[in-house]
Design brief:
The chain is α/β, with parallel strands linked by helices.
Length: 128
């Protein structure tokens, strides 16, 4: 006697849960990820032939009118430095190429008086 086999219909894999997980991961990383703030758009940086470097988010911008900005907020050097700058190991200044050299030297000297940390001047590489 011959038995008849039942043919099972192959069920398609449900990919909707996978799509949901991928979408949730995308949303999570978009929200949780931090985007570094861009450099101060109000300055025209000093240009050099050295290798390209972008200013770190902790850079202090010196605009051509002599004002200092840190993270988009004007920095008052007559007051104590913000806590993030106090905790930093190094200070970076990103000057405008049209800023006054005497004003720049005064600002750097004042920052040196406020903090004993090393100060670096950031410049922009000349476009090739």
């Amino acid at each position: 006697m011959r038995l008849e086999r039942r043919h099972k219909q192959k069920q398609n894999e449900n990919t909707i849960p996978l799509i949901n997980v991928v979408f949730l991961m995308l949303v999570f990383f978009l929200i949780a990820g931090t985007i570094a703030p861009s450099a101060d758009g109000e300055i025209n940086p000093v240009i050099s032939g050295l290798e390209q470097q972008s200013p770190p988010e902790e850079a202090i911008s010196l605009r051509k009118d002599g004002t200092l900005f840190y993270r988009g907020i004007e920095l008052d050097i007559t007051a104590p430095l913000p806590a993030t700058l106090v905790k930093a190991d190094h200070l970076f200044i990103y000057p405008d190429q049209n800023s006054n050299a005497q004003v720049f030297a005064e600002k750097v000297a004042r920052l040196k008086a406020l903090s004993s940390k090393p100060i670096s001047i950031l410049i922009k590489r000349e476009s090739e």
